[in-house]
Predict the structure.
Amino acid sequence: MLDAILDALIDSIKLLPFLFIAYLIMEYIEHKTGEKTKNAIKKSGKFGPLLGGALGIFPQCGFSAAASNLYAGRVITLGTLIAIYFSTSDEMLPVLISEAVPFTTIITILAIKLVIGIIAGFAIDLSLTLIKKRKNNKQENKEVEEEIGHICEHEHCHCEDGILKSAIKHTVNIFAFILIITVAVNIIIHFIGEDNLSNLILNKPVIGPMIAGIIGLIPNCAGSVILTQLYLENVISFGAVIGGLLVGSGIGILVLFRVNKDLKENIKILGMLYAIGTICGILIDVII
């Protein structure tokens, strides 16, 4: 067990410089494009799912949280919100980069999340439009006060600390997550055995994505870090990690429950995320 802990510590320390560089670059992009991104989403109209999905794949501080606020104010459609949730990577991208995962693998994961997000977004908006037409329910457009709020208030976002300080804080936080998760996985593998552990999930294409989807529901960066590390440790399959990452929306779903007054609608959105993400993960495992 001591070897497992020591190996986890050494492996995690090796990631530090790569993790810091990845966050430094992403913080720079965020500070330069954050406000422009939000404005573009607000003006996207019926093309919201396309633009939201495309912008969501870039790691941006609190983007899913901002989308939740925009939806609560009915500034964007439900399809746009779902597209952003599905394409949002949260902490997946810096972890993959720091682990020196092949570029083709990273692009494949991002592309899958993007395509599923866009398709799901347009399908949801189209379905809602058809339902409204069938019911002939012509609702008057009401002016809803937009409550965007300060998207930097959640626990792992430090947008106003400056690029360098923010990158350092992100790096330290995620390093701690990676270390804890790696130690836990190594200890479990030590006692259960790698083959036995893999057989519990990898050889069960339905159960794997379902479990990953539950992990993805964790409303902070922990979910994406856990899923990414489990995938890199060969504990869960490709379909399972995709399913879990689709479900995971970072802090977005938590903000939605706080700012959107319709609790039933929030629960439906949560169920929709889990169902679509899990089904997609299962289908990927079957196809691959």
In short: Residues 140-156 have pLDDT under 50 and may be disordered. The chain has one domain: 2-287. Residues 2-287 form one domain.
